[in-house]
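## Example pair
The file below holds two records. Each record gives the amino-acid sequence first, followed by its structure token line.
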Amino acid sequence: MDSDTTVENMKEIVKKFCAERDWDRFHNPKDLSIGIVTEGSELLSLFRFLNDGESLKILEDPNKRSMIENELADVLFFIIRFGQKYDIDISSAFFNKMKINEKRYPAEKFKGSNKKYNEVL
């Protein structure tokens, strides 16, 4: 379904959903940012105290995978809502940031490294 859905489609769905519930007054930039972090933390909590192997293994459990998918969807909801409500072109922002990342993290210098761009000479 990813290949059939656009960010604009998701923005329209989120806009309608929120309008039907009169949630505009609750969705200021600060509270939407809090929502992104809160839902991201809920995703993180599913992996807390797991080693690499265990964190991969839970993706094979249908119930846990469903929980992971739900938390990812919650994070995405808040991101989409932020973009929809404040007229941010999420695709353009993404591609612009990827251009910055290409410059900050050249493959020949960062291949196999998890260092931040300012930690590598």
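Second record, same layout:
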Amino acid sequence: MKQSLLLLMAATAVMAQITINEVQMKKMGITTGKVNLVSSTTVGPLIAKIDYDEEQSKSYFLDHEASIVALKVRAGDQVKKGQILCRIASPELLTNGFELKEVQNRYRSIQNNVKKDEVLYKEGIISYRDYQIGALEAASLRSRILTLEAQFSLAGVVPSTDGSMAVIAQKNGIITLSPLAVAEKIIPYQPYFRISNTDAMTAIINISPKQIASISKGDKVLNKAGSSIGSIISVATSVNGSTNSATAIARISNRSGELRAGTTTGLFVSTSKPVTSVFIPSNAVVKHQGKSICFIRTSNGFQAQELAVVGVSKEGVFVRQKGIDQATQVAVSGLIVLKGAMSGFE
């Protein structure tokens, strides 16, 4: 056996070329079979991360540090609009609360003067320039009020000058993110509270570069049982270099309690255009260094080939790549011997 394996070995730079004749194949129990060309409108399973639909959620952020001083609700609690979620302490928001109150008072006062100046200008008593001074100051104050109010709105906080501020629920729903304890620090620009509709979920689906052209907005998303549970709402045209995959977003309309936010699952996409793939049976596929490979029959023996898998089933894998077509023959038995030869095992 040692001598036979040495005869098998050839170059192993990327994928091994394995030299073997018919007699050696028969002796080692290596047989071959054909692959099948299939046309399907279903792609998958595709790895998908499940999350709540952000369009139907409300997340709370701060642009500076703060601390939780009181917790009224926790993750999993149902809340109603207007309900207090927690109280926070923030020197910056406290300062902004004082400023907002002052600016609002100044704005109301100047607005009254602007109305009077408008009458005086129309009657020719004051110049347009004098009238514009007050109007421009009022516009500047109004802009600052909107900026401060937006900051409080983003944080979900009611402006206060009494030392701590209440975070108010801005919609009905369930708490899907909350601080864990009093005195916990709120990290700037990261959500610290979120209210969601648990019936509105999305799936963030990873798709390979070869699958981008096959999947379109509006395509149906299927679970493992083949039931339609949603549809694709967007497909990225670019590929993430670190993962070598693109992202498709699906809105889940029927989860039937089987999908939970934060989990990953395998989903299928029913495409609007048929996809032609080569089907390789499972007994012809092995793993090597974390990759799926098969052994393609050549005139001198076999070529180990990494597979560009676009779909998986219990019976085998679907691939789309150059060098593999309906005329390809692959090893269907004796794969352990071929893998050992490829790896240099004796």
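Notes on the second record: The CA atoms of residues 235 and 248 lie 4 Å apart. The first helix runs from residue 2 to 8.
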